[in-house]
Amino acid sequence: MASLGFMMSCRLQSSHASYSAFKEECSTLCLADGDAAFAARNYDSAINLYSAVINVNSASDAVFANRSKAKLRKKLWKEALLDAQKVH
Q1: Domain count within the chain
Q2: pTM of the model
Q3: Does residue 69 fall inside a structural domain?
Q4: 26 burial level (CB within 10 Å; 0-12, 13-18, 19+)
């Protein structure tokens, strides 16, 4: 049992960089898929994908702006305004 704990500790230490890379890759993929969903006028999916980017990795102003645009298309005025206010 102690060896399992040791292995997990080593794995966690070595995987910190991998986890950061994984989060970045997930963000990049969700952003691209969000942009594609927006272009296809699938605003619900775009909102969900942009939200995933925000939740996984602190997002840039562009992601909040894109999610705001998608919410505007869905006529979610207050939610769109809240996202727009996060853009600097």
Answers
A1: 1
A2: 0.79
A3: yes
A4: middle
